[in-house]
Predict the 3D structure of the following.
Amino acid sequence: MKSVNTSIRQSFGATLFKLAKTNKNIYVVDADLKSSLYLSEFAKVFPKRFIEVGVAENNAASVAAGLAKTGKTVFLTSFSCFSPAINWAVIRQSICYNNSNVKIIGSHSGLMSGSLGATHQMLEDIALMQVLPNMEVFSPADAIETAKIVSAVSRSPKPSYIRLVRPDTPAFFPPKLSFTIGKSQILTKGNITLLFHGPIGHLAFNLSNTKENSLEIINCSSIKPLDSKTILKSIKKTGKLIVLEDHQKIGGLGQAVSSLLLENKLAPRFIHLAVDNQFGRSSKDYSKLYDHYGIGIKALKLAVKKLN
């Protein structure tokens, strides 16, 4: 699939700015990462609705929770290695327990942070967030879907987490395809079910499919709530499953799907491609990290071969 690389972070900032023009209840609480999240224009045009807390993630979560209780729709913005990693207890108690209307934006997630190294390659954020009651969790495939997800969560009163990445990534989400909270999108039909979330999904389109070696690619950007109906229907049809994600195996999409399979007494041939109980490491090229941790195109090709 040929595609142009675009910025998920820039899409987030532009979409939020556009929404704020017509929705005066949208506020931003930022942890000193305004430029990284493309929020400079928002801060300039809506200074009273942009609260800069600084490098104080726990305070930022508390401020966001308080603003939400006054009827505001609050976007709490930072890197995922800081929020939700540092302020998880405050998110749990002040945001989730009170079911507050706070949208937590965690950027620079996964191995895609590349040269920033293990400290900033957040591989546990989905596990941290999907375990929390009331919290909804989303991982957009690209800049196109990011805009759709941000728009959707801005209309929802529930707390949510949106996982963003650092580099420009291929745009492969069909522009005319809609996003609905709790729904997955079947992007191609085939005889092996492949579930993914986030930009890593573009790797699946780099495989040469044949009738005997075809992928039913399903974008699971809504990780919680999960689209059980669509996922189960595909797996019952194919009997073969690959889950591909730039996250730890424990606590990610693959584990959520594993529980779903057990609950429904299904036992497909199943390969889970994710980081296996390891921290990241530095690299100028994140694709080399993907190969090193067994989640790159080589590992995906091998998984497909094993299931055929």
